[in-house]
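Researcher: I'd like a structural prediction for the single chain below. Treat it as a standalone chain; there are no partners to consider.
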Amino acid sequence: MRRCEFCDSPVAADATVCPVCKETIAEETLERILPMLKRPEAPEVHFMGTGERLWGVIRKPSATYRDIGKRPDMVGPFVVILLNALVIAGLFLAMSSKVTTFVVVNSTSGQTANMNLLLSPQGGIFIGTALVGILANVMLGFVYLLVGAAFAHFAFKITGGTGSKGKTMSIIGYSMLPVVLVRVVAILVVLIGMPAYPDIVNFLNQGALNAVTPALISWAYTSGIWYIVDVLTTGGFVWVGFVLIFGIREAHNTSTLWAFVISLLCIIIFGWTFWQAH
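Model: Treating it as a single chain, here is the predicted structure.
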């Protein structure tokens, strides 16, 4: 809870005058050092739809999270989870596009030719796998959101937060949007920078389909491009931490400094967990 610098009375996070001693409350030191963290002016705060909120998380996080803090919702987080699932499917297909296979062009003579995997008859299997994976990743995204929001809400509460569970879940969901955007960039990095898979896969041989997927994943993880993707993802987590400052502050009525500290701890945990998993 933010407190008056003159009488130490608790005041609202966006208060400019103390309700007890009537003194004008100055901007926090962190807001003076980093003006981008300033609380939104009254004209900036207005009713926002889901689309405007998603854009606002990137463009105007201060005013956007003020609106989310007042009217938390689950539509935006669901959209973020769905977008993330679609992007992961796109990343899988981008990697698959680096594989070349044999196709029979003349069944009489047995003549074969090389063709991109996604354009070959077997490409439908990989496209179907990506589509099925969308549903799995949506379900997994909800699990991560529920578990992550539960831990985050507990952390916010023990550090003085006053917001509800719904507010916590909403700000966590919206705040993962930067990671989705970074993964879109990762798709472009894979398409442009990742070399072709070194072997030509012959799906005419039994067992080739079962063998190529783990081999492709292993090849991708050992390539230098995947390290770039990991660095980009880490940058996405840092971006998440930045927007979480606004979310924690507005949803839990804390000072900007305290929101910054909690957000920093969250990002350290995110980053450590991510790199440990690798």
